[in-house]
Amino acid sequence: MRRRDVVAALGAVTATAGCVAGYAGKEAPDDSDGGDDGEVETLTFAEQGVPPTICEEDLSPSGIVAIDDPAFGPGDAWPADPDGYQPLEATSTVIGLTDGDAARAYPLSLLNVHEIVNDDFGGPVLVTYCPICRSGMVAERVVDGAPARFDASGLLWTPPRVWTAAAAEDGRVFSDTDAGVANSGNLVMYDDRTGSYWSQMLAQGICGPKAEERLPIRPSTVATWGEWRDRHPDAEVLLPPPASGVVDPPI
Q1: DSSP 3-state helix, strand, coil percentages of the chain (rounded to 5)?
Q2: Beta strands 72-73 and 236-238, pairing class
Q3: Cα separation of 46 and 207, whole Å?
Q4: Residue 122: left (phi > 0), alpha (psi -120 to 50), or beta?
Q5: Are the beta carbons of 128 and 100 closer than 8 angstroms?
Q6: 239 in Cβ contact with 71 (< 8 Å)
Q7: In the chain, what is the straight-line distance between the N-terminal and C-terminal CA atoms, in Å?
Q8: Which helix (H) or strand (E) holds 151?
């Protein structure tokens, strides 16, 4: 499913997702000739979500590009009137990461626009947020033992609701709202090493060589910028482009 179709399709996705949840296979119809009677066709990982044909869809540029060369600075380095972004205020929500005594903050006002940040902080790290699902996920951006760059595919995929619940319970995904993660059309990422498609909220491969593999999760915190700054007075904050560089569109 392409992002430009999401508004029209969200209702259908929500209805269909309830039917998909917990569905691990489908029984073949009875054959009066006895050819396939009783056989079970097992669905692939991707086919259990919506759309089940996600692996057949090509990259679909949507104007969303990941931050690939992040720049950081103190809070007063944030522009007073950033072009295309919300101002950084004490009440602004951030995703916080630590590495020893060092701390960084990734404002949701930036992640709402770019959705993915490829960073190096205590190792290669991937900071993500899907505005549609209100879902955050932070992981090691390592594929086949080497750093990988991730970007938005322009596609959406809804996993079965039970998988989303399991991801939240495992701590793979979190939300910035008390209502929790919404099981809706979710950001599909892809990596530049294998071209595999990844579910942002599951931190798990959907299609390609890395289908069903999981990314190692990095501990993170959701807080306001004021709270995070109080806990970590020397914390740096991710700066908006052009200070931070972005990934070139795939096609």
Answers
A1: 20, 35, 45
A2: antiparallel
A3: 7
A4: left
A5: no
A6: yes
A7: 18
A8: strand 150-157
**Which residues have C-beta within 8 Å of that of residue 225, sequence separation ≥ 6?**
75, 88, 89, 90, 91, 92, 93, 94, 105, 107, 237
- CA-nearest of 130, 87, 89 to 112 is 130
The amino acid occupying position 27 is E
pLDDT at 50: 98
Question: What is the model's pLDDT at position 13?
Answer: 33
Q: What is the pLDDT of residues 28-74, one digit of tens each?
A: 334 445 555 566 679 999 999 999 999 999 998 878 999 999 999 99
Tell the burial category of 177 from Cβ atoms under 10 Å away from its Cβ (0-12, 13-18, 19+). exposed
How many other β-carbons are positioned within 10 Å of the β-carbon of residue 30?
Answer: 11
For residue 108, which amino acid is it? Answer: L
Three-class secondary structure of residue 230 per DSSP = helix
What is the reported pLDDT for 83? Answer: 86
Closest residue by Cα to residue 152 from 60, 217, 237: 60
Between strands 102-107 and 236-238, the pairing is parallel
Burial label, 72 (beta-carbon count in 10 A; 0-12, 13-18, 19+): middle
pLDDT bin (cut points 50, 70, 90) of residue 9 is very low
**Predicted local distance difference test score (pLDDT) of residue 39:** 62
What type of residue is 14?
T
